[in-house]
Predict the structure.
Amino acid sequence: MLQKRLYFGLTCTLLLLAFPFRIEGLSVSIRLYNEQVYFPDSTVELFVTVENESPESAQFRIADNRVFNLEFDVSDNTNRRLESSRKFITGRSTNQVYYRTVTLEPGERFSFTENLTDYVEIADPAVYNVQAVFYPELYRGNHRRTIRSNPITLSIRPGRTPETRIETRFTAVAERALQREQKSPDEVVEYLLEARRQGNWDRFFLYLNLEKVFRQAPERDRRFRRLGEEEQLQELREFRTQLIEQPPTGDAELVVVPDHYQILQTRYSPIEGEVTALLSFDYDRYRERKRYTFDLERRNGFWEIIGYQVVNLPNEALR
C-alpha cells in the first residue's frame, strides 16, 4: 500500500466541522472480508477502501468511531430496508468526535474493516443488497456530502451459528459462584449499584457482560477482533482486574461508588432494555450528579448490562 500522509485533528463538536475539503475524485468500494457462510447471528466483516482517482491530492476526515463516516443501505429482494442497530444509533447520538485528517495523493488508498452488524440488524435469512454511504467530512446534521460505494450481495442462510466461543469467554470472566435470578432490567441495575456500594465484586460482575462493555469503545473493539481466541480471553481477564484495582480512565465511572441513586426510567422490549438512573456523589460542600443510561440485552433468559453512557448534571450545594 502506498504511503499516506496523516494529519491529526483536534476533538471537535460536529457543529463546528465547517470548512470543506477537496473530495472530488475520491471513490469508495466495499467487499466481504474473509468471505464465509453467514447466518443471522454471524459477524459480517466488510473491507472498506477509499481511493483517490483524481490527478490531484484529496482529503477526508476519518473518525475513531466510524459511524460518523459510514452508514449502510441494506435491503432484501423485496426492497425492504433493514433497521439501524442500537449500537449505531447510540454511537451517532454523541456531539463530540475524535478524528484525523487523511490526505491521499493520486492513486493512493486508505482501507479499514467494519462489522456490518454494528450498523444494521440482520435477523432473517435472505439475500441482501449492501451499499456503503461514506461521509468524507463526517456526518453532521443537515450538511451531508456523501460518496456511495459499489453494491455487493450478501447471502444469509437459515439457522444459527454455534455460540460456543462467546459463551466460553463469558463464562471465563463472569462470576459463577453466585446463582443468577430472573430480574427485570431495573432490578439488574439496582443489583449492580448495590453491589458496588457494598464493595461486593462477585455480585457486581454477575449481570455484567464484560465483553460487550469492553468492546463498547470502538478502538478496543477493532483491536479485539484482530486477536486470537486465547488473546481475547486474556484481554477480558485483564480488563476485569483493572476495573477492580485501577480502572482505565474511560471506565472509572462504571465502578465509582455512588452515595445515592435513583432509577428514573426503564424501557425494554423482549430482547433489549434501557434503564436511566440518577447517581449522586457527596463532597464537603456540594453534591455531584450524573445521569447514567444502562443498555441491557436478554441472553439465555437473563438480562445483562452490555453498555452505558454518562451525562454530567449541574452540581447541588450542600448545607
Residues 5-156 form a domain with the Immunoglobulin-like fold (CATH 2.60.40.2360). The first helix runs from residue 86 to 92.
